[in-house]
Amino acid sequence: MYQILVCDDDRDIVSAIRIYLNAENYQTICTYNGEECLEVLRSQKVHLVILDIMMPYKSGIETLAALRQWSNVPVILLSAKSEDVDKIIGLNTGADDYITKPFNPVELIARVKSQLRRYMQLGGGEQSGKVIKIGGLSLDDTTKSVMVDNELVSLTPLEYEILSLLMKNAGKVYSPKEIYKAVWNETPMGAENAVAVHIRHIREKIEIDPAEPRYLKVVWGKGYKIHTGAY
User: Which bin fits 25, alpha (ψ -120 to 50), beta or left (φ > 0)?
Assistant: First the structure.
């Protein structure tokens, strides 16, 4: 059974989310501030976090930043309509998705299922046992791991899927909308910003100098590709 942590200082919202999740047979842990959220995450196995942005003492963004220092568990941010800037900051900090209050329970559950599927399966229906190597960069579909120059790098589920798509089609240019549709499996709304954020994070993890990438190249006006030239 999947265990989901919900963190919001509004107890009524936490209670409502717990009801929705329990109806789908998810186990729910309820927390009401960032410190309590982090304490639970350090001590228990959690498969997904639903985290409110606006909380006293330690905001959702601060909590997420602390969490990302040691965990890649999927995080869905809860935000008010007026918090667009915080949504962008959240994505930059490592959030996997966000949903705006007031939210539709059906949409919330759909996003939860989508993130859990990525986190637990990563490669989905991809054939396992295949290792792709390009220069010093390698991706292993069996272990769902990525190594750069024989050193393991830690990617979030979305980062892994984006890199997997590009490496399995090395040399092919994908537009942000094509990446978004393939990885998010949704209509590409706001694709450019979402994809750009994750591309930047991937570069920071796999490139010696993200400003002069060896592998993950931008083709101006067209999109992104994995470079297959000599290294």
Answer: left
Residue 86 token pair: 């915080």
Question: What does the pLDDT look like over 156-213, one tens digit per residue?
Answer: 888 999 999 999 888 889 999 999 988 887 776 666 788 999 999 999 999 999 989 9
Residue ranges per structural domain of the chain: 3-121, 131-226
CB 141 within 8 A of CB 123: yes
Backbone angles phi, psi at 174, to 5 degrees: -115, 130
Alpha carbons 204 and 13: distance in angstroms, whole number: 36
**CA–CA dist 189, 230 (Å, integer):** 36
SS3 label, residue 49: strand
Say which CATH topology domain 131-226 has: Arc Repressor Mutant, subunit A (1.10.10)
Report residue 167: phi and psi, to 5°. Answer: -70, -35
Q: Has domain 3-121 been given CATH number 3.40.50.2300?
A: yes
> The tokens of 67 are what?
């969490």
